[in-house]
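Lab meeting minutes (informal)
Scribe: AK
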Amino acid sequence: MHEENKAAPNGCGKIRSGTQNEAALLALMEKTGYSMVQENGQRKFGGPPPGWEGPPPPRGCEVFVGKIPRDMYEDELVPVFERAGKIYEFRLMMEFSGENRGYAFVMYTTKEEAQLAIKILNNYEIRPGKFIGVCVSLDNCRLFIGAIPKEKKKEEILNEMKKVTEGVVDVIVYPNATDKTKNRGFAFVEYESHRAAAMARRRLIPGTFQLWGHTIQVDWADPEKEVDEETMQRVKVLYVRNLMMSTTEDTIKAEFNKFKPGVVERVKKLRDYAFVHFFHRDDAIAAMSVMNGKCIDGASIEVTLAKPVNKEGTWKQHFNGQISPSSENLLGFPNKEDGHQKSLGRPASLSVRLNGQQSPGPPEVERCTYPFFPGIKLTPISMYSLKSSHFSSAAMHLDYFCNKNNWAPPEYYLYSTTSQDGKILLVYKVLIPSIADGSQSYFMPDKLCTTVEGAKELAAQFTLLHLAPEQAYITLLSLNAA
């Protein structure tokens, strides 16, 4: 272990020298018996702890910690996080200067300990006026691959990805909503580990890599949301995918009622997928087993349990991970490999009701301003060269989404009507020229707004929901929505 001999203030506001920092860390190591090593911009405490035998803890045992004071180190942090349970590994991200980067990953020996850490330490005042954020950290093993020829089948994509990258486990391909013989121009590739996915991304990311003569787009996909087993045991809603655009809610309800009449409470269909609500969980489980793979109106459907939205008011789901409570932003929840993640289709936008469902509120986007001093060098830049985290509106995310898929920009058409009390109400139709066809020429929400900006955001969000059903069913549909 090496620590630069620089002075840093301690928790009481006093300056603590590099020598004192090193002495404090050595004392922690001696007391706990854990080892400590710094490499690749992070300092690892433990991993494994003394006397550990067997494999590392399973997925779900690690938490992410954000908003850590930059002058706080393991000698102060470890005792705090030990309150929740035995630490397998504590990884503090470090700067070259010797300060930490404001965030860390803490792996416990059990999932229960990790959940307890989130419960008791999220928004914990670690120093006077300094509150940390704690949430679950998941290894991302999935990549988004865009600009895939639409005529390619799942088996072809899987075989091709196995040729050019290692560790491929599966490929998720969504059929086109209007032509089931084609894909939607993108796929999700699942790898055996986060490292395998990261290595694949490094190989494919330059933007010059081609598959079947096409330059593909590569990015991190949203990690699939994990819901605790206790919550899933209460779910009585099924997520039904790969429906025909023409299939109605009444048809879906009738088909799911066939195996046992009267068990379906209601059905909500969006584009080519739907949510089937049951009165009782047992009937939902039985229907899932019976209906998965069945044909409705000529389409072979996929049926799974729907995953409930996190209703915790303290944390709101962001398309890049999790963000902080109240007015302060948690330092974005980075990907372990390179400090960021990206995903598609989850807009940061207005808190609105779509099709009778309440969407989560907008993320607390950082809107800091910085002084512009004379002589500062400015460089021309394209918005498409930025990361998606630089955008804070659904309209911008939709534009970014279209560009990422090599589609033409979305086109917005404004319409108005007058309410009973004389207010002018507005709605936008959104046309995506690259995918428009006779059966789905535009996207338009079923809600009206009083402002142009609100109408455009709502329309963009609505469009994104329909273009990215995987994210939509995870993050935007509440089980108990009216």
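Next up, CB showed the second protein from the same session:
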Amino acid sequence: MHENFIWNTIIRRCSQAKNPQRALYFYARMRRKGRLPDSFTFPSALKASADLFDSRKGQEIHCLALKTGHASTFYLQTNLALFYASCGEMKSARQVFEEMPKSDAIAWNVMIAGCLRSGCFVEAVNLYSHMKLEGCRADGHTLVSIASACANIGAIGFGKYVHGYACKLGLTVVVPLLNALIDMYGKCGCSVDAHALFDEVSERTLVSWSTMMNVYAIHGRASDVFDAFSGMKEQGFSPDEIVFTSVLCACSHAGLLEEGKRWFRDMTEIYGISPTIQHYGCMVDLLGRAGRLKEAYELIQRMPVKPDAAIWRALAGACLVSGELYLAEDAAKHLIELNSSPDGGDLVLLSNVYARLGRWEDVVWARKGMELNVGHKTASCSYIELNNVVHGFLSGNVSNPESHMITDMLSQMAEKVLSETFIAAALLVRPKAVIHFGASPSTDYYHCSTVTHFEVCD
């Protein structure tokens, strides 16, 4: 027992010191010495596995915990759920969570945060609702996660409820929660509310400033971004990479080419920040919007990092709009070459370029690649909030119980528009289906808001 205490102390210290490799090294040595891990060993070893995203190692530890009879303790079950959630295996995390005899706020927070990391925003909101129904009181960590989930699905009604609940609990002095609420209001289109909340933050951090600047940027308020940058510096904060991403994004949305170039140059020369792939992406977008396509292409060629799909996609789209078809073809080809199994939406882009060039044999090749499922098209998703309940609509998915009614309504509208000699094709897309769902007779609603996450729309 004394020897286990020593091993557990070493493993725990390594794990807490953010040295997961060392923690697992001592865990392996402990096993080789013939010592059986106990209820104090497993949590630290699982945390180390989670920090390394080592799913296989964590599963081995889970199996040993089951064999030794330690997997049923509440503390270890919470750590197992955390491990699986950290590795993105939400199905396994949910299974462990549901096997718990009871769930405290920590266990609920683990599941909600896991859903958030995995992009399961609606499920995160639903888990929070179940948490409330079971009488478990939320804390600041819970509300930060839920505010972020609301931001991603545009659930402004539910987000306002979270804000109100935070006021009730006296948590509006918690700066990370205020930052999350500012982000939520901004991404849900309520920049005025975001600004009002920002004014209430008495002890602003660099994250507070960068969050508010990002809100201004996505709303195209470049002058407000620049003013906030000055205010941030007056309070003694030095800008970081995230701040400059917001600044360059604002310049791009506002079409401020020369200002964007100056900020990009100052970032390196004055503030000593090396541009990241996000900064280069903003500059390519800025140059593309300004029609400086060759300059954008030359910037990509000079990048010290390998351009990602977003950069090539931005250049190809800008070239297609501007009629620079050969440059668009080159960008689209680079885009296809990035993946051994190219995204179907990128094949659509390349097909459109070939069609504009009149190269119909190449158009057929690209279309065949899509039809034969050579590439997979990342599905886009729309959300609609009705009475604080969020409904998700995925491209091609008809699981909603009212999908037939929505389809009938779209068909009727298409016939109506066709009878007026208009083109109805633009109506037959998923975002319209979301709107019609919100306007259907069966939805007696008080508040309705929608948001769409687009990958590609062909």
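CB comment: The mean pLDDT is 84.
No objections, moving on.
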